[in-house]
Design a protein that fits this description.
The chain is built from 21 helices and 37 strands. The protein has 726 residues and is an alpha/beta fold. The protein folds into 4 domains: 189 residues, FAD/NAD(P)-binding domain; 122 residues, FAD/NAD(P)-binding domain; 112 residues, PurM-like, N-terminal domain (60s Ribosomal Protein L30, Chain: A); 178 residues, Phosphoribosyl-aminoimidazole Synthetase, Chain A, domain 2 (Alpha-Beta Complex), CATH 3.90.650. The chain has a 7-stranded mixed β-sheet, sandwiched between helices. Strand 6 and strand 7 form a beta hairpin. The longest helix is centred in the last third of the chain and has 21 residues. It is globular and about 90 Å long. The two termini are 53 Å apart.
């Protein structure tokens, strides 16, 4: 039975609370025929309710982070890591910074708000907005570490005397209280906490005094500097961390969408639809026209079930059901953090204060996060009662095949199959043993030709295209050639013609971006429909003198230009065990061009790129071709963040056993760290044998060019073998 075709595109712009909850619900109750896309600047989104506790030091960063990549995997959605910058409603395209636009049939916006103050002189350069939360959390984490280490004065200024500013000021005072001469100031151009009921305000003002926060009401800041703020009266206040918490501001790009706005926020009806019925909005970026409410996360959480049902109904075939309406509660429980592990509860004039209220708040916040982190295992459909012999063992006895290079046939199998081939007979074709690319002669010109094809391991065709293109070009760069031309091969999953056009447009625009940046041209290709997305490129390059596997000499330094661990990271992503922030870093390394690295290493003795056979397998390929040995130091091998932690849990790529068997000449301990030497890489770095006279110079140049390169060992006398130095 063929998989059901995709016919509709649902795009969630932003990773706010409503959209995070929708991803969870979609994974448990998806709508066949719909592809879901979530667009967010980063792989994680911070939960606002726990931010003061994080700032105070009561939570670690992971406690308040929602892993959007993990939620997207659970929902079967694609995650686009980028910042939305506009909507073309006529063409139904969402523009995203640094990539082709994303098509939609139905879209929803939940991008939150910002507290950036671009009109305040110096704030953009020296200030930190409280929202978006992820950027603030990163900056605060760094400042706190530096202040505790005595590297920077613990002087903080919070601009904005509302509830959010007061909570964060008390949290900062709590976090820095052990440091001598700590100074936390809360500044407002008017009075502090004017939006509160008088009795509630008095209680919070008392807590501010107890925390040692200095209040600066009726103070107009006119400039933010690197180490101080300047007031309108000419006075200054020392500050090495100036936080902007002065109210909620909508993102500026919304005004260019043509949607109806209220003070810059998206006006929505009781069904959470905008003035364009194809677009919905929720959370702080939305203005409830039928019942205006203040900006608070509780409304985003309550809107999620209504938004989920309305999105499904808008996408459903022949659905005549009326959309649900959302009516916010008139009042809600406000739990205000007071710095230490105490909180103030306020609802309908009733106030309670103390450690018990903190425990209550902590319970509520952790329960909400568990809802989005504890994702139930969704079992595959059961097999029929009668199946072919061996099918049940093949399906039930093995985990799903990893994507990327983990989906390749093992090196030992390839060696057995290809070793019987006598090699090329034409004089103008030269294929050296072990090299992935063939050499073609055209008079005095050398041409390199190679091909690579990957089944999709990420749902985003653009990211998958960029990774595959860099992966395919690796063989060209490894032989010292300049990229020349490429042929694309694309297999699309079953989908409607409209989706075929939008997917192919994204893929080809992304491919052109990569190849044109490397000086190459896409000259054609082939498309087909299949069970899943797969992308491949046949590539050629030109050179004067090829660099091959043969040529390494005893004494050469072994230089690696990228970290390893991609295989175990992708295996972890498939099993929803990898951290989203670590995956984001891994993808960034995969799309990093090796073109400049190849130019820096153009005088190396031998070179290859590290891909499916892993670091050990590819290094042994150099050793076998050059009839030398090698010694490597695992402690010097760069590893992707999170990869070793996953390996220590026993996680391995599906091709790991084959890679381990292929590296028969390996001599070293069996540890998670050394197991990563056999981890298959996708779009991995270059591996070069460089003369000792040039190695340090090359390393310096590589690092200056932005590569996380390292000298990981030395070439030794033969016979071919690989030893791990313990």
């Amino acid at each position: 039975m063929h998989p059901l075709p995709l016919t509709r595109e649902l795009v969630l712009i932003g990773g706010g609370h409503s959209h995070a909850l929708i991803l969870k619900r979609w994974g448990m109750r998806h709508l066949p025929g719909v592809r879901v896309t979530v667009i967010n600047p980063g792989a994680v989104a911070a939960y606002s309710g726990m931010l003061p506790g994080f700032v105070a030091g009561h939570y670690v960063r992971e406690d308040l982070e929602l892993d959007l990549l993990r939620l997207a995997r659970f929902a079967g959605a694609r995650a686009v890591l980028g910042r939305a910058t506009g909507i073309d409603r006529e063409a139904r395209l969402i523009h995203v910074e640094g990539r082709p636009p994303v098509r939609y049939d139905i879209a929803s916006i939940d991008i939150g708000i910002t507290s950036a103050m671009p009109d305040l002189t110096g704030f953009t350069e020296h200030g930190i907005p409280a929202k978006p939360l992820e950027a603030f959390a990163s900056r605060w984490d760094q400042f706190r570490k530096e202040a505790l280490a005595g590297e920077i004065a613990p002087e903080v200024a919070v601009i904005g005397g509302g509830v959010a500013g007061a909570e964060l000021a008390m949290a900062m005072a709590q976090s820095l209280k052990t440091i001598p001469n700590t100074q936390v100031s809360l500044i407002d151009h008017g009075e502090i906490l004017t939006e509160m009921r008088p009795a509630t305000r008095d209680a919070v003002m008392g807590a501010l005094a107890e925390a040692g926060v200095k209040l600066r009401p009726q103070s107009q800041v006119i400039e933010v500097r690197a180490d101080e703020v300047l007031f309108a009266d000419g006075t200054t206040l020392s500050s090495h961390f100036t936080l902007g918490a002065a109210g909620a501001r909508p993102y500026g790009w919304l005004k260019d969408t043509g949607l109806d706005l209220t003070e810059g926020f998206i006006t929505v009806t009781e069904t959470l639809q905008c003035s364009d019925p194809r677009i919905f909005a929720a959370g702080d970026c939305a203005h409830l026209s039928h019942d205006p409410r203040p900006k608070a996360g509780v409304y985003a959480v309550r809107e999620a079930p209504v938004l989920f049902d309305n999105l499904r109904r808008s996408l459903s075939a022949g659905s005549a059901a009326r959309l649900r309406t959302y009516h916010p509660q008139k009042d809600y429980l406000k739990l205000i953090s007071l710095g230490g592990k105490a909180a103030l509860a306020d609802k309908s004039g009733l106030r309670l204060k103390g450690p018990l209220m903190w425990r209550w708040k902590d319970h509520i916040d952790r329960a909400f996060m568990r809802k989005l982190k504890d994702l139930p295992a969704m079992p595959p459909p059961p097999l029929p009662d009668t199946v072919a012999e061996g099918l049940r063992e093949e399906v039930e006895g093995k985990k799903p095949m990893c994507g990327g290079c983990g989906a390749k046939v093992g090196g030992d199998i390839l060696h057995r199959v290809l070793s019987a081939h006598p090699g090329p007979k034409r004089r103008d074709v030269l294929h050296l043993a072990g090299d992935d690319a063939a050499l073609l002669t055209h008079g005095d010109t050398w041409q390199v030709a190679s091909v690579d094809h990957l089944r999709a391991f990420v749902e985003d065709p653009v990211l998958m295209t960029r990774i595959t293109a860099i992966h395919a070009l690796g063989d060209i760069w490894a032989m010292g050639a300049a990229p020349q031309a490429a042929l694309a091969t694309v297999t699309l999953p079953n989908m409607s013609e409209a989706l075929q056009e939008s997917w192919l447009t994204e893929i080809m625009e992304a491919a052109r971006d990569v190849f044109e940046a490397e000086g190459a041209e896409i000259i054609g290709g082939h498309t087909a429909m299949g069970a899943e997305l797969a992308i491949g490129f046949t590539v050629t390059g030109l050179l004067d003198q090829p660099i091959t596997l043969k040529g390494a000499r005893a004494g050469d330094r072994i230089l690696l230009t990228k970290p390893i661990g991609a295989g175990v990271m992708l295996a972890g992503e498939m099993e929803m065990k990898a951290n989203g922030r670590d995956l984001e870093r891994a993808y960034a390394f995969m799309v990093q061009s090796s073109g400049e690295a190849a130019r820096i290493l153009n005088t190396t003795h031998a070179m290859t790129d590290v891909t499916g056979f892993g670091l050990a397998g590819h290094l042994l390929g150099i050793c076998r071709a050059s009839e030398v040995g090698a010694v490597i130091r695992p402690k010097d091998v760069p590893i992707l963040p999170g990869a070793l932690a996953l390996a220590e849990t026993g996680l391995r790529s599906t091709i790991f056993p084959a890679n381990r068997a292929y590296a028969a000449e390996f001599d070293g301990p069996e540890t998670p760290e050394t197991d990563l030497l056999f981890d298959p890489q996708t779009a991995g770095g270059l591996l070069a044998a460089v003369s000792p006279m040039r190695a340090e110079k090359c390393l310096t140049a590589l690092r200056e060019a932005g590569y996380e390169a390292a000298i990981i060992g030395e070439i030794t006398e033969g016979p071919p073998h690989l030893t791990v130095e313990t």
